[in-house]
Structures are given as C-alpha cells and as structure tokens.
Amino acid sequence: MGKNRIENLYTLSNSEKELLKLPESKKKDSWDTHTFQDLKKNLKSHLYVEQENLCVYCKQELSKETRLTHIEHVIARDNNEKFCFALKNLALSCRDCNSAKSAKYVYHNERTEKSLSRYPHRSVRFLIPHPHYDNFDEHVSFFLDFYPIEVNQSSKGIKLIEICNLRRFGLMANKITAEFKNSAGGMEEKIYKLSAKSPEEALAGIDEIIAELL
C-alpha cells in the first residue's frame, strides 16, 4: 500500500526560496502561471518518489501523464490561498480523487479554515488523514486490497472515504483487475462486464464478487 505518510518535505533551492517570498506565491491565481512552473515540476518529481508513485488518498498507482496526476492542496486554494505553496499542504493525488475532493473543507471549522494565517502543525483539527502528519493505515484500510473501509471507526477515515468518493466504481474495478488479472474463474471477464452496467448495478456486482472471494 506504500508509505503511511509523507516523511520528507521537498528541499527548496535558494532561487525557489526567493520565489516564495513574492506576494504572488500567496495568491491562488498564481498557481498556474509560468513563474512557478519549474518549482511545481521539481516538487512533483520529489513527491512521486516520496509517495512511492501512489495517490495519497486512494493508494492507486499514479500516472506519469500530467493531466492525470495533480499536486493536491490539502486545504484547497479556494478556501485559503495563503497556503498555495505551503509544502506541508501539498501532495500528489490522482485526477479522480482531486476532482472528488475539490474545494471541500477538511479543517474542523469552515470559517477557521478560511481565516487561518499560519499553516497548522498538528493533525488533530483536520477532518481527514493529513498526508504529512497522519499514518494512513490507522484510518483507512483496503479490504482484499481494493474496498476501502475505515479502521476502528476512525472519523478521519470515514470522512476521507466520503470526501474523495473512495468507493467509486472505477477505482475499485481497477484495483480488482490488477489484483486478480491472472486468477481463475473468469474474474477479469466478470469485472469487464460490470463496466457496461449502471453505477448501482456495478456496485451490486462488486458485492457479489466480494462474496465469492470470502
């Protein structure tokens, strides 16, 4: 499942430190400008290694395609732009987790999340496992390596599964296929056929597959 959390922050070069002193680094609209392009590229390379090439939320293998792998803001840019380039606020996620989480609030209070002036240094007030502070496997585990469940009724685990829609069909189908690609019993064919079903029928089909494996 990869590392439990991001242990090593990216080390900024002197020129990158100067960049982050610019007022623009605290503005959400600056994220996609050319000014910070090289910094983002270097940060992404570091996080690929640090996260062992896995999405920080769903633990699915990350794609090397830029459009499919995102630098994720734990506290969303839309909610507090001051942390746009705060290193502890950044991690790599797959496109689907990034899209599902979007600008949902992850701090204990929406108003507080918007008004924070300094980045929190502890995990206690975050509603989800923080990529830099929390051990992931204390909050979420993957039953049979693909079905996400909260560990010991962890409130953070429950919230992460909800916010990132970790029980989405596509994610589970990909994990099942990878796990049982060469197994007997036509498992891969069954999974393939589910892709043509409605979401409700697909989830029911996944339940049947789980029952077969138990």
Automatic annotation (TrEMBL):
Residues 43-99 form the HNH nuclease domain. CDD domains: HNHc. Gene3D superfamilies: 1.10.30.50. Pfam families: HNH. One of its GO terms (molecular function) is zinc ion binding. This is HNH nuclease domain-containing protein. It comes from Pseudobdellovibrio exovorus JSS. The lineage of its organism: Bacteria, Pseudomonadati, Bdellovibrionota, Bdellovibrionia, Bdellovibrionales.
